[in-house]
Amino acid sequence: MNKLGRGQRDKVQQFMTVTGASEKVAIQALKATDWHLEGAFDVFYSQPHIKSFADTRRLEELYNRYQDSHADMILADGISYLCNDLQVDPQDIVMLVVSWHMKAATMCEFSKQEFIGGLQSLGIDSLEKFRERIPFMRSELKDSQKVREIYNFSFGWAKEKGQKSLALDTAIGMWQLLFAEKQWPLVDYWCQFLQEHHNKAISRDTWSQLLEFARTIDPTLSNYDPEGAWPYLIDEFVDYLNENGIIHKGKSSDWSFKH
Q1: Neighbour-count burial for 248-258, b at 16+ CB within 10 Å, e otherwise
Q2: What is the DSSP string of 96-114?
């Protein structure tokens, strides 16, 4: 590392600490991303041939720290304890990203396989590494493809076990969380419309189509085609906006789902 500048050496050390990678791999990843640390993490963790450096024994210890005393799972209390250790609010959207990495089947639950498998895929085997990876996971919310995956994942994650649809109150809470990062200007009107005129569970089709609507339709509705193949609920929402004179004035926001 003698030929590297001090800032570059610091980044190499930080990269090696977080990932467990060798100095050679760290330098390669950083050079490939013009020495952007977050980009280098992204490159490193997106390579399928990269072997996990996570220590299985330490992962077992981490799991045992949060496991429920009456079940072979981490439940709400354990997740709250984990959030406290990570210094993250349980309502922080980054915990949804964590659940996505763990491929968690249900909100407020991690099976042993989900927890350990997810941390292995992230190269995490200690609380310190977990904390250091939080900024990277937060940065994934700026990647439009990952945001789409997280959005679609969250439907199955948030619905009640055995149910095909998502309870309306839960859906509204999830939309407010997902669209808060870079606000969709119509989200509050959408939630208000559903509570006033729908008051039923949300289907997977409506859930996925709303993302497309938010991504592609300008908040002024200038490019909305009433002959388009939108679910009836979205068409009714557009009628509601027009009938009540609630068209968002101004330019569309530059936000994650637009790109």
Answers
A1: beeebeebbbe
A2: HHHHHHTT-SSTT-EEHHH
Closest to 136 measured CA to CA, from 250, 23, 17: 17
Q: Report pLDDT digits (tens) over 132-141.
A: 999 999 989 9
pLDDT in tens, 24-62: 888 988 988 889 988 888 888 776 544 445 578 899 999
Q: Output the furthest CA–CA distance in the chain (Å, rounded).
A: 68
Integer-rounded Cα radius of gyration of the chain? 21
Indicate whether this model's pTM tops 0.90: no
In order of 23, 31, 77, 149, 158, the CA distances from 72 in angstroms are 38, 43, 13, 28, 21
Determine the Cα–Cα distance for residues 4 and 173; give it in Å rounded to an integer.
48
Structure tokens at 139: 């940065």
| Beta-bridge partner residues of 166 | 202
Q: In whole angstroms, give the CA distance from residue 216 to residue 99.
A: 27
